[in-house]
Design a protein that fits this description.
With about 180 residues, this protein is an all-alpha fold. The protein is built from six helices and no strands. The protein is elongated and about 115 Å long.
């Protein structure tokens, strides 16, 4: 090897060392930027999920207002008088209802049993299955089941402000034992 090759190898090694050092510094800076972006993405995701959960909770409160008010009342009771008082009161009321049912089933069922049974069935059976039952009877249409067709008639559109509004298609008939009372 001559002196020129040795100088070129040493200079190339030095240049390679500088390039590697520079790439390491750039890599560390990119890692910091990526970590900051990941942290920002996590924060935005958490905020988005919190907004969605608050909207869901508000929708549930509006849909199931009786249960929501009951839970607020129970939470207030727990906060102001403590859980032992709440547990004792619930136990006494449950015991009184059970004793009433054992002593006089007819009056219990007339005054409390039917309401408790209706509440229980509403939450466990009817509410989850009602959408499927309505669809099976033809009383509802799933939006993704039928395509939407829009027809525009230029001749009618010009006179539509003067004509009477049309009623939509008539819904299928519904028979109810309370029809005479309501209609």
């Amino acid at each position: 090897m001559d002196a020129q090759t040795i100088v070129l190898v040493i200079a190339g090694g030095g240049a390679l060392g500088v390039v590697v050092w520079l790439l390491a510094k750039i890599g560390k800076a990119l890692i910091k930027v990526a970590e900051a972006l990941a942290a920002a993405a996590v924060v935005l995701f958490v905020v988005w999920m919190m907004i969605k959960s608050i909207v869901w909770a508000l929708r549930q409160v509006l849909t199931h207002w009786r249960t929501s008010l009951t839970l607020v009342a129970l939470g207030a009771w727990w906060h102001w008088w403590g859980w032992p008082s709440l547990a004792l009161t619930v136990s006494v009321v449950s015991g009184a209802l059970a004793g009433w049912r054992l002593l006089d089933l007819a009056s219990f069922d007339a005054w409390a049993g039917r309401h408790l049974r209706a509440w229980w069935l509403r939450w466990t059976v009817y509410s989850p299955k009602l959408p499927d039952w309505l669809h099976a009877c033809g009383l509802s249409i799933k939006p993704d089941a039928t395509p939407m067709v829009v027809t525009v008639d230029a001749a009618r559109a010009r006179h539509s402000s003067q004509s009477q509004p049309r009623a939509g298609p008539a819904p299928p008939g519904v028979r109810s034992p309370f029809g005479r009372l309501l209609g």
